[in-house]
Backbone:
């Protein structure tokens, strides 16, 4: 079979699709404008410390999807890992997500789970029927004191917008617990790759039918060179921003090098406005099975992305939804291309959802193509 496929982006979406198609006999060309594979889950060993670093910020693999969990475990070794995050606010360190420890420490109480639930219900605003904004969601479920201490300023720093203008869905990502469970995620499966995420992408792209081209990308004029293109770059950039730019937040990481243990935890969020950065990640704590004398941390600053910055978080406010609708209708009329992944579809996607969607997209394409083949 000599069907040629172009893939824009060597991140998770592009690599999973490339691998599925290559296994089915397609000739696949994967392009990425950066000089490395892996997209924003690229990891590398820092020099001279030898510590595994997630270049574009911490990525913890977590999912409820057994198929996706098995898929990743068949490719690389995942070590058991539970994400536990601390919060710095009002000159104190607390436990996140909001749990019984956080509540008791914050309110200087020793409440039982049921007493804490009642207590928080008294703080929260029961007049809010359906929470639309981030702020309403916080008021409805945790009340003003916890909202102001842990969410209001952090969210302003992270998104550059007032929580009253942001959607409730952003906060719905986080659990609130009335027990002492401080696991940041509710998912059944959670782990960290023993040797980082880059080997996962390498394995996916290591196939005789796949050619990887770094430092270059597929643009609209290149699409005709392929039987089909999967595009995981920015959808607005593909259409040359003709309806304007979709807003993204980008991140700046400022390194701190030290000896020993800098902060005693993988992630500490700075929830009030005593600091301009949102959090500090200390990367050796993401590989607790390794031992290193040195340490490297990153202070994370969030700001609005311009067209040359690396896009991280799609903002998705009303204005963006209007712009996105225009691009989606252009995309639907465009022949020979499928837009995939976080940037191609302008959605905030966790890694497990990215993999699941990429597998579905590839398999759907393969079965459609097979159905069209003469028997
Ligand atoms: N958030 C916050 N304080 C925190 C942690 C999270 O205000 O200490 C808010 C913030 O707006 C963030 C959202 O909750 O974007 C979702 O948190 P999550 O940890 O999922 O953030 P992400 O993984 O998107 O960085």
Residues:
């Amino acid at each position: 079979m000599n069907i040629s496929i172009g893939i824009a982006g060597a991140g998770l979406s592009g690599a999973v699709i490339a691998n599925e198609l290559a296994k089915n006999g397609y000739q696949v060309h994967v392009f990425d404008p950066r000089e490395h594979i892996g997209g924003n889950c690229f990891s590398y060993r820092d020099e001279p410390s030898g510590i595994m670093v997630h270049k574009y910020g911490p990525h913890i693999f977590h999912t409820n999807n057994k198929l996706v969990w098995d898929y990743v475990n068949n490719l690389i070794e995942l070590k058991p890992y539970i994400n536990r995050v601390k919060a710095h606010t009002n000159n104190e360190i607390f436990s996140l997500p909001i749990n019984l420890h956080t509540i008791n420490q914050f309110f200087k109480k020793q409440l039982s789970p049921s007493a804490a639930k009642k207590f928080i219900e008294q703080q929260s605003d029961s007049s809010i029927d359906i929470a639309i904004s981030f702020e309403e969601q916080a008021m409805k479920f945790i009340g003003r004191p916890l909202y102001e201490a842990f969410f209001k300023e952090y969210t302003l720093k992270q998104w550059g917008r007032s929580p009253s203008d942001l959607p409730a869905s952003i906060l719905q990502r986080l659990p609130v617990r009335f027990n002492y469970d401080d696991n940041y995620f509710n998912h059944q499966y959670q782990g960290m790759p023993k040797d980082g995420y880059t080997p996962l992408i390498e394995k996916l792209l290591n196939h005789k039918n796949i050619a990887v081209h770094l430092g270059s990308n597929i643009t609209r004029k290149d699409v005709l060179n392929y039987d089909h293109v999967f595009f995981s770059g920015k959808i607005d950039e593909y259409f040359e921003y003709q309806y304007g730019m979709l807003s993204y937040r980008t991140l700046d990481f400022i390194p701190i090098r030290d000896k020993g243990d800098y902060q005693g935890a993988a992630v500490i969020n700075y929830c009030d406005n005593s600091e301009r950065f949102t959090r500090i990640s200390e990367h050796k704590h993401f590989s607790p099975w390794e031992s290193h004398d040195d340490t490297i941390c990153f202070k994370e600053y969030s700001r609005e992305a311009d067209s040359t910055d690396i896009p991280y978080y799609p903002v998705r406010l009303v204005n963006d939804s209007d712009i996105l609708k225009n691009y989606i209708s252009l995309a639907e009329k465009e022949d020979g291309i499928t837009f995939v992944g976080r940037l191609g579809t302008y959605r905030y996607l966790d890694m497990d959802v990215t993999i699941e969607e990429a597998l579905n997209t590839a398999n759907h394409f393969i079965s459609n193509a097979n159905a069209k083949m003469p028997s």
